UniProtKB/TrEMBL annotation:
GO MF terms, alphabetically ordered: asparagine synthase (glutamine-hydrolyzing) activity
Domain of life: Eukaryota
Sections of the chain in a coiled coil: none
InterPro entries, A to Z: Asn_synthase (IPR001962), Asn_synthetase_domain (IPR051857), Rossmann-like_a/b/a_fold (IPR014729)
Entry protein name: Asparagine synthase
Species of the source: Parascedosporium putredinis
């Protein structure tokens, strides 16, 4: 573990000052993320054009693994501050047909209803609207990646192979979401108020931003792991391999080694509590004009996209998967 940096292990005082939007740690986190993002989103080569391209096709080099939650939406918003205005950003939002939940639906209902009812689809569309309000000059495109249960099972063996040596039910449910989102194909929408304009699209982007690891960075875990940041390193090793089939350069700015050490040292060193609600990041979202996003509840990707407990509600995440 010697290559992941030096971490501040000091505990904050019992009476920590109350964080505000103008507090030093909030600005420090913004600066660290902007610096890290600039290395990942600027000067990305324009993707090669495949087939016929219309005259109004927008130059899109960056996509975001987008649940509409706090972490990914803050990254999308900050990336927009760095990118030239003529470049678009694709927001990849994945939702699954969970057979246990699908069985409860009215057979005559809209086939897309099972996907639109996923928690991450609901928050994703809501945060999509907020990004449009905050950055009206940017071309945001929401890509709804809908995955039928049959397709999930058809790719199971390949996903199990990609996620090796991880081998639990929780690993598999997370890998499903990352794998299918990384394919970058779904129903595209530019204006949330005009569903009729939706069409099947594939993102041309080759850099995929992910907010995975922010929980570990900001100590939003069930017990702070010693040292702070080790959990996020594990999260990165998972996501970078599980999306490899999509030909992406997956980038997670929150895990940059200096960000681990410096952000933790700034917050803990100044006596700011690293609380389980990620207050520093929520205040940053509010500072960026995203009040609704700042209040979004934390939700694990496997529950938001409904890849967890597909076959049985009794399966635990710690169970070892069997079969290919």
């Amino acid at each position: 573990m010697s290559n992941i940096g030096i971490f501040n292990m000091a505990l904050p005082p019992e009476t920590a000052p109350h964080l505000k939007m103008e507090s030093g740690p909030v600005q420090a986190l913004r600066e660290h993320l902007m610096r890290s993002l600039s290395l990942r989103v600027l000067n990305v080569p324009q993707p090669p054009k495949v087939g016929s391209v219309s005259e109004d096709e927008v130059d899109t080099r960056i996509a975001v693994l987008f649940s509409g939650g706090l972490d990914c939406t803050v990254l999308a918003r900050l990336a927009s501050e760095l990118l030239p205005l003529e470049q678009g950003v694709d927001l990849l939002n994945v939702a699954f047909e969970n057979p246990r939940l699908a069985a409860r639906l009215d057979p005559s209902s809209d086939p897309l209803a099972i996907y639109e009812a996923c928690p991450d689809r609901i928050t994703g569309r809501r945060s999509f609207k907020e990004l449009l309000t905050c950055c009206p000059g940017r071309r945001w495109r929401f890509i709804a990646v809908n995955v039928p249960y049959s397709e999930t099972q058809g790719h199971r063996s390949e996903i199990v192979s990609l996620m090796h040596p991880h081998n639990t039910e929780m690993d598999l449910s997370i890998a499903y979401a990352l794998y299918f989102a990384a394919r970058g194909a779904g129903i595209g929408q530019i204006d949330p108020e005009t569903p009729s304009g939706c069409q099947h699209v594939s993102t041309p982007a080759r850099v995929l931003l992910s907010g995975l690891g922010a929980d570990e960075l900001l100590a939003d875990t069930c017990g702070m792991p010693p040292p702070l940041g080790v959990g996020a390193t594990k999260a990165y090793s998972r996501s970078s391999s599980w999306t490899s089939a999509g030909s992406w350069a997956i980038e997670a700015p929150a895990w940059e080694k200096c960000d681990f050490a410096t952000t933790a040292a700034t917050t803990a060193g100044e006596g700011i509590e690293l609380d389980p609600e990620k207050r520093v990041l929520r205040l940053l979202a509010a500072q960026l004009g995203m009040r609704n996003v700042a209040g979004e509840k934390k939700r694990a990707i496997q529950f938001g996209s409904r890849t967890a407990k597909m076959e049985s509600g009794k399966i635990k995440g710690t169970h070892i998967i069997t079969g290919p």
